[in-house]
Every structure is written in structure tokens, then in C-alpha cells.
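thread: overnight batch results

M.L. [08:02]
morning all. the overnight job finished for the chain we discussed friday. pasting input first so we're all looking at the same thing
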Amino acid sequence: MLTILAQAALWLWFLGCVTTWRFGRVLLVEGMGVRSAEFGVLCLYSLGLAAYHALRPWGRWALLGILALWFAVQFSCHWRYTLFGAGERKLQGYNDCFRGTVRLFPMSDKRLVPDLYHIVLHGLILVNLALCLVGYE
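M.L. [08:03]
and the structure it wrote out:
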């Protein structure tokens, strides 16, 4: 049950990258639409979930591979720049793109500081990756 809840939470949360999550004047994330790489990742994750639940036992390995790839992409696009610093162009692009979103920590002029949406997204990816890795049902 925990695995299903974590999978559903990640799917719904990531849907925000496709459709905008806005609550009144508060912007959580601005969606990129169905013609985006984000929509492709959502479809890939959906296929991984279908394989996980319908094609046991190898479906677990398919989903594990998708989650590991997804985390690697997120690390290379986000956390690498948080940990090691970012160039001016990358930093300006990220800060401009996510300027109006909810933040726990202020933007920096040296490091990429993820907004609330990305912090939760990456946490959910890691939780799902761990649950899938250990085979928790």
C-alpha cells in the first residue's frame, strides 16, 4: 500500500510539470504542456508503473531503471548546480524560469537553489526509487 501511495503521489506531483499547479495567486509550478520533454517523462513513468503492476517480476526492474534514469537526469539538471555551483547563463535561466514559484530558500547568485516543487519532486523520486529497489510492496 505504501508503494502505491508513493507512486500515485509522484505521478500526481509530476503532472504539475505538464499542467500548471496554481492556488490563487500562489504558483507552485508552471506546466510545459503535452508537447514537452516533461510529458514524455510522465508517459515513460506511466509505462513503468503499468509494467511494475502488470508484468511481475521483471516490471519492477523496468520501473527501477526508469526511476534511476529520471533521478540521474534530475541530478544533472538541478542538484549538480546546487552542490557545485552554476555558470551565469544556467543560473539566470533557472531563476527566470522559476522566479514566481514557491521557495523555501532564497535564490542565490552563485548556486542553483531549487524551489519547493523541485525539492518535493526529487524527494518523491528518491522515495519511489528506494521502495522499488528494496522490493517493498
